[in-house]
Amino acid sequence: MIEPARILxxxxxxxxxxxxxxxxxxxxxxxxxxxCVLTDAATxxxxxxxxxxxxxxxxxxxxxxxxxxxxxxxxxxxxxxxxVIVAPATADLMARMAHGxxxxxxxxxxxxxxxxxxxAPAMNVNMWNHPxxxxxxxxxRERGVxxxxxxxxxxxxxxxxxxxxxxxxxxxxxADRALSSGSLSGQCVLVTAGGTTEPIDPVRGIxxxxxxxxxxxxxxxxxxxxxxxxxxxxxxxxxxxxxxxRVDVGTALEMRAAVLQELEGATVIIKAAAxxxxxxxxxxxxxxxxxxxxxxxxxxxxxxxxxxxxxEICQIKGERIVVGFxxxxxxxxPAARRKIERKGCDLLVAxxxxxxxxxxxxxxxxxxxxTPDGAVEDVSLRHKAEVASQxxxxxxxxxxxxxx
Length: 404
Ligand SMILES: Cc1cc2nc3c(=O)[nH]c(=O)nc-3n(C[C@H](O)[C@H](O)[C@H](O)COP(=O)(O)O)c2cc1C
Fold this sequence. Notes:
binds flavin mononucleotide, Rossmann fold, 35% helix, 15 helices, eight-stranded mixed sheet
């Protein structure tokens, strides 16, 4: 059960504002006190009177309006909120938030508030993909702004792609999560991320294309939910998420040693790293010279099998929840079902790495969540932060079922 909270809904001037009355109704229905603030542009897309009637609270629109400011000033609005939802978060509003502008009521309140902010972006796909918007998004995420959507599909502007505002029930669920932050408090989540690099000599190695983005998103979300998080990171250039303890490793053997060392206190283990199955039998301690090595045009490298860390952990996991990842390029679900049976983990996240729009290196992912009974839940294409959120929801559900 979510405790009744004071939620401020900041409405931006996008076409998706027509969905805000439904969102507001659902929030009021949950027992929350909801206030709305609108940008000038937003008043063209949704009626302030409708929002005022649904919330039973005065709606504010202007920053420099004597009577509105007299009734409830903008700093009190910012202070007296437990959560601020920005819906729709327009490209313009995201830019103002990212750069700390305060030249209208909504951006001033967003700058002044100390409450968590949850934004639901919505815009044309090209506006969304523009480097300016993507950079603003990164800045906002780095600062801890929460995000739900956008989703992919047919857009009001006639284009197809990412940019549709998350449906009101999804925004309500994200708000529930934001308000119940701490849902993983007391848990210690161990996440592995990135690829391993198996040295051939001091300057060469065998690695893979994993960027670490999925594992880092999982670590960030678990920390946001109040867990103590240890992130064992292979090769990646990503910054460490806030409130996460990071252990850097190079090879699969180093990753295994770090995981075993951190295992003791962990209650949840998420193995999102792409670990090399094989390594060169011997790594030369000096750089191999082309001339001395290759007499013909063929060079052979002898590889030996690396330990299977997931399998090893599953054998000693006890009460811990263990989540594995499977990167498959074909027959994704049957292969993933075989893998979960073989390994004995509690949840398997199957990635289709043959897609060009998801998986390795991209910001987006589409996965299938597979449980030991073979059941499959599809998570359609969305930002990795959102996929992380759904995976952690699933882990929390498994924990809840066990406790029950
Ligand atoms: C019909 C129409 C629909 C629009 N829809 C969107 C939208 O979905 N997302 C967006 O970022 N901007 C959209 N815009 C542009 C914004 O209204 C404009 O950038 C405005 O400055 C946003 O102001 P605000 O961020 O203060 O609400 C739309 C404009 C028009 C005329």
